[in-house]
Amino acid sequence: MTETADIVIIGAGIVGCSIAYHLAVQGAGSVLVVEKDLVCSGATGKSAGGIRQQFATDLNVRLSLESLKMFHRMQDELGVDPAFRQVGYLFMATTPRELEMFRQQAEFQQRYGIPVRIVSPEDICRIVPYVRLDDIIGGVYCPADGYAAPYEVTMGYASAARRLGVRIHEQRAVTGVLREGGRAAGVETSRGPIHAPIVVNAAGPEGGLIGEMAGVDVPVKPYRRQIFVTGPLAEFTEEPPLTIDYHRSWYFRAEMGGCLFSGPKDEESTFNTNVDWEHLAESVATAVARVPILEEAEIKRGWAGSYDISPDNNAILGAVPALPGFYLATGHSGHGFMHGPATGKLMAELILTGKTSMDISSLSLDRFRTGKPVREPMTMHEA
Ligand SMILES: Cc1cc2nc3c(=O)[nH]c(=O)nc-3n(C[C@H](O)[C@H](O)[C@H](O)COP(=O)(O)OP(=O)(O)OC[C@H]3O[C@@H](n4cnc5c(N)ncnc54)[C@H](O)[C@@H]3O)c2cc1C
User: What single DSSP character describes residue 256?
Assistant: First the structure.
């Protein structure tokens, strides 16, 4: 029997599940999500869960503000506790140039009512007394930022979408994108074709591969990122903010009373998501250099996942004019978890009405052709 849907979504990470849920809420017909592995098994499940409003472009700030509202009402809306902890985000600067950039961006964010402020090394010492500060000249701090639980949030969207009639097929890989008369017409999968007039590429770091299947150049590549977690630390009596050494692209936050910190970053694109245990000593040395108390801590676990990087480190959202019926919501470049809720709502609006309640056209694929990349310095370097 031929399998059909009105809309097929490729990928069941935060982005695919949020789009599916919002499509159902907004009254779409039959929606089917195809996931090659399990819900939340991709980048989302590997994420640090960081949620911040500290961005430098209008659209990224708006995506954060909208998502923040959605994280706050998630318990009521989806019936799951997203475990959202507003512990704050603290960026630390080593050079006057970095501090000046933080200052300009804080002024920009304050215009949106975001409670962000410039902090001195003495302030930082009060917030995170165990951090080595001799080369830190200041920072920027927003107590309303924080982190949530990626698995709970994504499963919340998936379960709510299912309750509204969305089908989610796990362990079924998309192997091709069907085209008919110059339009997207569905997907070929490991378990047969699914015919649908609308196909959404929400494959995260694999968004480029899905693009290839559709004959569309989607410039998204995977880059391995690693995380390590220590056992409980007596010094974390009060939970620290998600703290970023901007100069060294290194961050930490608390996790179950211990310290979760970032490990090495691959400079070359790779689909490898194995933990590089061989170089653990170097990762620990980097961490100890900034947070000396980690010298005594035991590493309990670690994992690796793929950042979903686009050429300008920003998401690619929208329709593909060259292939009607084919939509992109991929390449979030390390901030897809925090923007996943708003992305889902806006993509659903776009697919169903052709319009969005927030102008997301600056994130269209076309920007790479017309030479209008987004300049967002507060990405890539941190969570
Ligand atoms: C170590 C690490 C830390 C991070 N920290 C943060 C953070 O603090 N805050 C933040 O906002 N973001 C963070 N990110 C980035 C964030 O995880 C991603 O931007 C976000 O999860 C992207 O969501 P997604 O749904 O687009 O992708 P994914 O979660 O990767 O979902 C895509 C899904 O598509 C599936 N798929 C791919 N190809 C196919 C196919 N051919 N057929 C069927 N299914 C397919 C995959 O299996 C996957 O489940 C981090 C990422 C990593 C790796």
Answer: T
Contact, 50 vs 119, CB < 8 A? no
CB 93 within 8 Å of CB 102: yes
Mutation to probe ligand 1, out of 18, 70, 206, 317 (largest number of atoms < 8 A from CB): 206
> Which of 14, 44, 220, 249 most suits a substitution to test ligand 1, by most atoms within 8 Å of the C-beta?
44
Q: At what angle do helices 14-25 and 150-163 cross, to 10 degrees?
A: 30
Q: Which atom of ligand 1 is nearest to the CA of 50?
A: 8
Q: Name the nearest CA neighbour of 40 among 204, 151, 161, 166.
A: 151
Query: Ligand 1 atom closest to Cα of 37?
Result: 47
Q: How many whole angstroms separate alpha carbon 159 and alpha carbon 130?
A: 41
**Tens digit of each residue's pLDDT, the chain (383 residues):** 789 999 999 999 999 999 999 999 999 999 999 999 999 999 999 999 999 999 999 999 999 999 999 999 999 999 999 999 999 999 999 999 999 999 999 999 999 999 999 999 999 999 999 999 999 999 999 999 999 999 999 999 999 999 999 999 999 999 999 999 999 999 999 999 999 999 999 999 999 999 999 999 999 999 999 999 999 999 999 999 999 999 999 999 999 999 999 998 899 999 999 999 988 999 999 999 999 999 999 999 999 999 999 999 999 999 999 999 999 999 999 999 999 999 999 999 999 999 999 999 999 999 999 888 887 776 544 55
- Beta strands at 138-142 and 146-147: parallel, antiparallel or unpaired: unpaired
| C-alpha span between 247 and 227 (Å, rounded) | 18
231 touches 79 (CB < 8 A): no
Partners of 194 in the β-ladder? 3, 187
- Which amino acid residue places its CA nearest to atom 4 of ligand 1? 47
Q: Global pTM?
A: 0.97
281 Cα distance to chain centroid: 28
What is the 64 CA–ligand 1 centroid distance (Å)? Answer: 17
Task: Show the tokens assigned to 377.
Answer: 């310095």
- Alpha carbons within 13 A on the beta-carbon side of 42: 30
